[in-house]
Amino acid sequence: MEMFEDDRRRVGFLEYEALKRELSLMTTTVAALCSIYCGTVLSLEASVSYTIGALGSLLYLQLLFRHADNLSEENVATVFRGKRHKKIGVRSSDLQIAFGKAVFGSISALSSPRLVIPVTLYGLWTLDHQLGFSQMDLQITPMMFGFFAHKAALLVQAFRDNKDLDMEFEKESQTSSLGRRS
What's the whole-model pTM score? Predict the structure, then answer.
């Protein structure tokens, strides 16, 4: 039985590593295609700004992978590990737990090095506009869209993993006959 558990864990780990590689590749592909699109349709400045944001997106994704790799039960605050008891009504202990989760969750989110990336992108744009730091006019909107390139890859992966999301619509003749009165 222990052998089966080890095999299952090994397969899960290999699937996780494949998912990380696929998301990185898909993010790079989305970023490259959108950068080319920005360069041909919009402007060179928009393309460079998008590319800078997309590089930030790739860095963000790698930091997210590292965070997930290092995540273990010891790294999670005790307030998040507690079992939830089924009770009717709200008790003072429920409020204390909710407050603790909000505080520890906020501290955890704000102390993340991943938060530095969008702040750095905004700081780079501010320096460019305030000090005339470069010959090129960086644009904040394409830069932020580039930063969210990993979200497009995640959406593609979510749709790919959930084949049951396909929706079937009724034919128009059936729906139009329902709306008529006899």
Answer: 0.66
Tell me the C-alpha distance between 44 and 34, whole Å.
Answer: 12
* Whether 57 contacts 150, CB under 8 Å: yes
The share of the chain scoring above pLDDT 70, in percent, equals 62
Can you tell me the distance from the alpha carbon of 167 to that of 4, in angstroms, rounded to the nearest whole number?
37
Q: Return the SS3 of 2.
A: helix
Please state the length of the chain.
182
User: Where would I find the H helices in 38-148?
Assistant: 44-70, 78-81, 92-110, 116-131, 140-147
Residues near 19 by beta carbon (within 8 Å), at least 6 away in sequence? 157
For the chain, the straight-line distance linking the first and the last C-alpha, in angstroms and rounded, comes to 67
Q: For residue 22, which amino acid is it?
A: E
Contact 15, 84 (CB under 8 A): no
